[in-house]
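A reminder from the course coordinator: this example appears on the midterm review sheet, so study it carefully.

Given structure:
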């Protein structure tokens, strides 16, 4: 590239000599004859180098040099001062004003040319280096930005993954639909930072409608009264889309748009289908982002992941609770069968179950353990189904043989339920509700810690009810008397459980 040199001197002869020799050496030149026009020419031509006389009219060479330095921030343009004066002070002033060299008049043109060549090569090298460095810095900065962005995205991904992982763990762990929807709502609201969420689910008794089952942050109660047809409109559309639907979308079919306007006005701009085995089991409606922005790509991806794990979990929990209902009604039928056989135990099962449930709760057991205790208590005497009515209702004392039959009821009961997967955990409570801490109970003669807490709870509840009920051979004891009797039998009953029972009676939770 041809280099451009600005030559400034108030003596036209000097300018002429220098420019001529520069041009014959391949340079392009511009010239000026005073300080002010020198700066104008500098601004206009952007020279690569300036040869500058010190003693200029209108503005001296030092001031011009200073000015050039302040404009040329990267120090790319060398300035060579020319002066008739070689007093060290003047030279020093020249260097201080930013000149690279100082040539004394009269000069040899060769010397000037050699210096110009030299400075231009240096300046060019510096400029190239600087530019390369700038590119590197830019790349570095971009790299750091990329690194930070990737790091941020990675952290978010890990967080998302953890959320999904804990959600799917919850979905497998939580069988209670209410608890499950609660976790689901909190996850959706928290992860998407939205103000509200609502879940519609297939109605139990008819498969024709979806209705409201729960939500968070609703603006009003209107939604709770809404039913959506499962086979057409929005439901059908969502099932065919299998994806997020934006309810403000202008391209929605007419019947879908009608439902959408309504739901959108209730504060839900988006919805997502819950699909299990190609059936629409529910629809999740999603509120506005708290920052009022539209959902971004990551939000939608997150939403898809959460909802697809939730769909199966929610359906399983519903099936599970339906199954549980079926089992419970079966159990109730079984229990009423025993009570029909044994007139003295009327209401016994129900009371024992009530005491046992209250004890399990008082003792801080978790939901699964409470359920086990509850089922175990309801079923504890189910083995009496196998005991002859004549024995159960015999007014007088039982013979040894008859006792043997009665004492078999825990074992018989455990055998009845042992094949029901759902009641597996209650089996131990049924079998061991007549075991005693000192080992004198039946059927296995277990001692102390060998008897599970659940079985001990049922044992206390069972004995407490037996003591406080009328029997053919004695009258019922009062609650206080029965509790004192139990407290005196620490060798047989778990006193921690008995003391909890005392608390429940004291607080009036268990009444006479
Ligand atoms: Fe029993
Ligand atoms: Fe009993």
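Designed residues:
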């Amino acid at each position: 590239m041809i280099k451009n040199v600005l030559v400034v001197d108030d003596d036209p002869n000097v300018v002429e000599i220098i420019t001529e020799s520069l041009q014959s050496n391949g340079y392009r030149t511009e010239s000026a004859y005073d300080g002010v026009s020198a700066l104008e020419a500098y601004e206009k031509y952007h020279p690569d180098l300036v040869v500058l006389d010190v003693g200029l009219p209108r503005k001296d060479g030092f001031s011009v040099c200073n000015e050039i330095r302040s404009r040329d921030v990267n120090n790319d343009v060398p300035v060579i001062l020319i002066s008739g004066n070689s007093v060290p002070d003047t030279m020093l002033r020249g260097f201080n004003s930013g000149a690279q060299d100082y040539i004394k008049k009269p000069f040899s043109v060769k010397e000037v040319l050699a210096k110009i060549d030299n400075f231009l090569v240096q300046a060019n090298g510096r400029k190239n280096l600087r530019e390369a460095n700038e590119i590197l810095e830019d790349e570095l900065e971009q790299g750091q930005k990329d690194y930070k962005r990737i790091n941020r995205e990675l952290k978010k991904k890990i967080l998302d993954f953890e959320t999904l992982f804990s959600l799917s763990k919850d979905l497998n762990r939580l069988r209670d639909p209410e608890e499950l929807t609660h976790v689901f709502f909190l996850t959706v609201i928290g992860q998407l930072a939205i103000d509200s969420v609502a879940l519609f689910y297939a109605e139990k008794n008819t498969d024709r409608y979806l209705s409201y089952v729960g939500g968070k942050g609703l603006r009003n109660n209107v939604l709770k009264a809404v039913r959506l047809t499962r086979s057409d409109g929005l439901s059908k559309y969502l099932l065919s889309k299998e994806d997020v639907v934006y309810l403000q979308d202008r391209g929605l079919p007419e019947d879908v748009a009608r439902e959408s306007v309504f739901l959108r006005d209730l504060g839900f701009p988006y919805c997502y289908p819950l699909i299990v085995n190609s059936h629409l089991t529910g629809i999740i409606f999603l509120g506005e982002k708290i920052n009022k922005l539209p959902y971004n790509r990551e939000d939608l991806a997150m939403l898809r992941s959460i909802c697809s794990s939730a769909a199966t979990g929610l359906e399983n929990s519903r099936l599970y609770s339906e199954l549980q209902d079926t089992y419970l009604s079966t159990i109730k039928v079984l229990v009423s069968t025993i009570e029909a056989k044994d007139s003295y135990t009327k209401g016994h099962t129900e009371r024992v179950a009530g005491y046992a449930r209250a004890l399990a709760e008082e003792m801080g057991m978790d939901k699964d353990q409470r359920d086990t205790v509850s089922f175990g208590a309801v079923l504890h005497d189910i083995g009496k189904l196998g005991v002859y009515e004549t024995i159960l209702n015999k007014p007088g004392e039982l013979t040894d043989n008859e006792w043997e039959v009665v004492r078999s009821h825990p074992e018989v009961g455990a055998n009845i339920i042992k094949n029901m997967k759902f009641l597996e955990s209650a089996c131990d409570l049924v079998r061991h509700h007549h075991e005693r801490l000192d080992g004198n109970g039946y059927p296995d003669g277990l001692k102390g810690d060998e008897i599970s807490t659940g079985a001990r709870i049922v044992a206390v509840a069972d004995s407490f009810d037996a003591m406080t009920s009328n029997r053919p051979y004695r009258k019922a004891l009062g609650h206080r008397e029965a509790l004192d009797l139990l407290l005196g039998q620490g060798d047989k009953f778990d006193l921690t459980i008995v003391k909890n029972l005392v608390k429940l009676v004291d607080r009036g939770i268990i009444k006479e």
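The CA atoms of residues 418 and 424 lie 6 Å apart. The chain has a mean pLDDT of 85.
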